[in-house]
Amino acid sequence: MTDAPGPEELLRPGHLACQGCAAALAMRYVLGALGERTVVVLPASCWSIIAGPFPSSSLAVPLVHVPFETAGAVASGVRAALDVRGRRDVEVLAWAGDGGTFDIGLQALSGAAERNEDIIYACYDNEAYMNTGIQRSSATPRYAWTTTTPATSPKTTPKKNIMEILAAHKIPYCATATVAYPQDLADKVAKARKYRGTKFLHILCPCPPGWKYEPRFTVKLARLAVHTKVFPIYEITGGDTYRINIDPEGTPVAEYLKLQGRFAHLNETEMEEMQARVDFEWGRLLHKSLMEPFTRQQR
Amino acid sequence: MRAPAEKPLPDLPGARDLPQAVVCKAQATVSLTGTWRHLRPEYRRATAPCQTACPLGNDIEGFISRLAEGSPIDAWHLLVETNPLPAVCGRVCFKPCEARCSRSRLDQPLAIRDLERVAGDEAVAREVPLPRLATRKNRNVAVVGGGPAGLGFAYHAARLGYLPTVFEQNEKAGGLLRYGIPEYRLPEKILDAELERMSGCGIELRTNKRMGRDFSLGELRGFAAVFVATGLQAPRPFHLALPDSRRILPATQFLAKIKAKAPLPSHGRIVVVGGGSAAVDAARSALRLGARATIVCLEERSQMPADNDECREAEREGVAIEDRTSVLDLGLDRSGVLLVLGRVESFSLSDRAAAIRCATGSERLLQADLVVLATGQVVDREPLAAFDWAGAEECEPTKPQGEGPIVLFGGDLAGALGGKARPATVAEALASGMRAGRALHEKLAAAHPPSPPPGLEAEAINLAYFARSTRERPLMLPVAERVAGFDEVCRGLSRPAAQREAGRCFHCGRCTGCDNCWLFCPDLAVARSNDGVGYQIDLAYCKGCAICAEECPRGAISLVEERK
Amino acid sequence: MRKLLTANHAVSHAVRLARVEVIAAYPITPQTPIVEELSEMCASGALAAKFIKVESEHSAMACCIGAESAGARSFTATSSQGLALMHELLHWAAGARLPIVMAEVNRALGPGWNIWADQTDSLAQRDTGWLQFYCESAQEVLDSVLIAYRVAEQASLPAMVAYDAFFLSHTAEVVEVPSQESVDRYLPPYRPKLELGVEAPAAFGALTSPDYFMEFRLKAEQAMEAAADMATQAMEEFAGLFGRRYYPLEAYSSDDAELILVVTGSAASTARVVIDRLRGSGKRVGLVKVKLFRPSPKEEIRRLLGRAAKVAIVDRNLSLGAGGIVAQEIAAALANEPARPAIHSYIAGLGGRDITEETLEEIVEDALSQVRARPRPLWVGVRS
């Protein structure tokens, strides 16, 4: 575990992330695993602030800020330029929030994935529009409070399954990760680098102000998300071969929910329903992980 | 290009000095985010719950670390800073430490007692002497009673530079350890080895000296201080009138007779009355004499005061336990003792009286060749009568007699003399002596020993970082071989098992350099120290999110409110 | 080499000759033949570019922003709805000072669906910070793409080359396609002034506070102003190398003109015929063709139009509620002139309606007959 952020820190102290920001941690881990020969493409998100206002930059790698919906496309363009200019060894990392990935940036991401652009696209998912002040996104879980889904009328639709969307593009590699397991994340970044084509990392990043919890619980919540099976840690290669990387302990979902103010309005019935849904989804995932992968012989 | 400004423009570069577009030099530090902080993380040393639970305050985490490193003698050196008898305690301690071991929240507590024994036995086997002690102050102190409390006092007094003389009524020192605990639990050679080692550090032992018989407290005038720890010498009065018979014995006498190899029934049935440690010791000893053994106790089996492991082993060996049972009457007949037993509905015990209610019609008979009463000990006031104990407090130096020495008391005697009643265990007795020794030194030398770091809060342990593991079990003599004699039953942990077991320690309250604080800092404010030990927090950038403290597996980081 | 080319294919050849490195484009009528031809060129190896076949015009421009940031000469082409979809990114490309070049086939914006010529699409993007060149022939389109790269890269600003749908995009003409060697002399390899690369890591386009924002906008505006002279110079050099002369504002028979007709795009060729005919009948009329719309060639407007009594401006575009965009620009440029011509504004040819010789003659006759300019533009060739 001690090797996760890499030999050299590419994120500097003094950045403008909130106290206990998982998105800052996630960047630290991912860049640590990628190294300094990386170009970051950064659409509008919390990270537009964290990276620092002119004339500062909290990163030691080149970084281009881009409009909200363009991460997949700008990353494609950067990749193309690096390729035609003979810089194949430089990685392109698109680094977008859930809004920039699940919602406004989904088209550009889908385009890049379908073209199988040789990029790593990392979505740091804090499950709402946090930078604009906690508005619901399609990554917001069912029943969560946000400023646009008040507790009296919480979100009724489920969190979009972005992994399935990306897997449906049959890209070489999709993986989930959280900041609670830095080595898993670093390993996945290293694995992603070995594939040519679009690699998608879905990193759950608890957000203290947005989820309403004390900053100290960031890693704890990330861990609970995994062990309650709310956010399973798995990878999909070739769009069809599923592998679960961390065996969840099966902690009751309520333990995860109860730490977060955004679920404070939930009653027992709703919690039980969430548990049942989580169990159901986990069963589906488990089933997929047990399926034989596609082989040429099957034709 | 621009009209005169009404307000002065900020003192920043003008357009001609700026780059063509908004481009920032990489890794320019952004802000001194330390100003956001309300909580400041600080590395700290906290006392592990096991150590807090240990009457002696043994540095359990410390000695286990050394065992894990494969250095049992280093571990032993740490133990003997508080406990002169690790090999003894490693066998007979009630192990309150294990009850508080943080690992029990995950799987099973560490086998701390077994590990202590590994260190103790290694030192005995290698005949490692106790460390030479600091400068002598050449002040003589007397110790009345050579049991664990007296020995504990003598040891710590000696460590603090005094010259202790121990007055022991018996032929040999050790008290209960020697005469009360059977050989199969505590081999005499182990006790002898550890006691002999103690005499090597300046403790003078005078045996066959009973206070009130061979000397009086007044004769100890030449000593700077006297520590009285004569223990509980008299059996607690039984709730029934007892016929005078050699077939009815208090447990202390029964066990002492076995030690002295005095003749005892070697067949038939021995009934032991009582549910404590002495009762189980007596019953298991009875088996080893060749008798059948039955324990009759008031408590339910699971509530017996004796150590549960001991009870379980006793049953495995063949001891019958008649729990929730009271002796309603007993009388002698031709072949032995006839007991009338009743089924207990409720009971309450005090020093003076027992209130026991039995179910009517539950009476039954039990025939015994010998009845052993293990119903507790009380203080024998006679040797103490010459001293005015008013105002004396346990382990508190008191000077009630004009020019006389400072007098302290401790051990099991403490509760009987109005001090704090503690469990009558070896560790408590040793600790009582240690406290008295330190208190004396505080008074005489005005030396205040450093207080240990604060105890670790249970919730400070983060179980997520510990994998489940199975507790190592010590080697045990096969049951069939046990009852043939008094060979030691528990053979301890093997060296590899001990090392594995030591590896299970959480190291509560001590930074082990696991890197979690560094790894999980979103603000890169934690750096490994240049000297390779521990970490430093850059308070210029630390925002005080407290993830480091939360994710510290062992509570080695505390949070301090920032004062603005 | 002379070839029979539509303006669209002329663009493809210009892109090849400019040695563009990254192309990102999305199909839209009437632009599509450009990228079809470029796909063939890339496939055959005639052009060593990476062609990203994106899922929208929005992503096309985003790809160009990424590629250009990372130092590659980039190109896209679009039209109408596609250009409108790019709008946000047009601002971004200019603000980031990225010299992307785009071919923009002028087509009406719906609804109703209309794929025919109308310049509202590009003129509506006049405030985004892009250089805008309008063309009247396939030859001018090819040449303008090369000129646009030259000026854009010098000024660090993006440029679009606009031309009318079908009248130019799908009409084949004889075009002189210059040699690669001569183009290489005119257009050196792209050397980005700022480059997103690992050698000198930097953050591009970061959050910019009120303390800095205006200074950066001022720099961009200064660059735009400087680009007007750069364009003139680039056109002169082009003439020196290739023998074809272009001007930001091209005057035709206008020296002594009492009335000057102002047109943009393909209508210019028609206008020349009309002017010649009217001159033949003794009318003192002239023509000014607007080629460079951004940066606004204000000096040229004042120089070429300031002395005429009347200016008749034909707008193949409409700013709803404000009238013709070119007319507004010219009126604004002349506003502070002590003696300025009357501005007669005409809306014509929207959504592909033909601007014929008769249309233009009608406009000239109308302007000559009016004692004063009307308060609103006159819609020509419309059923009221």
Notes on the structure:
The complex is a heterotrimer of chains A (299), B (564) and C (384). Helices cover 36% and strands 14% of the residues of chain A. By secondary structure, chain A is an alpha/beta fold. In chain A, helix 1 crosses helix 7 and helix 3 (71-84) packs parallel to helix 5 (106-114). In chain B, a hairpin with a 6-residue loop joins strand 21 and strand 22 (535-537). In chain B, helix 2 (60-68) crosses helix 16 (495-502). The radius of gyration of chain B is 30 Å and the shape is elongated. The relative contact order of chain B is 0.16. With 384 residues, chain C is of the alpha/beta class. Chain C is 41% helix and 19% strand. In chain C, the strands form three sheets. Chain C has a seven-stranded mixed beta sheet, with helices on both faces. A six-stranded mixed beta sheet of chain C has the order 10-12-11-14-15-16, with helices on both faces. Chain C is globular and about 65 Å long. The N and C termini of chain C lie far apart (48 Å). The mean pLDDT of chain C is 97. At the A-C interface, strand 1, strand 2, helix 3 and helix 5 of A face strand 3, helix 3, helix 4 and strand 9 of C.
Q: If you average the pLDDT of chain B, what whole number results? A: 90
**Ranges of chain B with pLDDT <50 over ≥5 residues?**
none
| Secondary-structure-derived class of chain A | alpha/beta
Largest sheet of chain B: 5 strands, parallel
Flag low-confidence runs of chain A: none
Proportion of strand residues of chain B = 15-25%
- Please write the string of helix (H) and strand (E) elements of chain A: HEHEHEHHEHEHEHHEEHH
Largest sheet strand order of chain A: 2-1-3-4-6-5-7-8
Number of helices of chain A: 11
Profile the largest sheet of chain A: 8 strands, mixed
Based on CA atoms alone, the radius of gyration of chain B comes out at 30 Å
Q: Separation of termini of chain B?
A: 46 Å
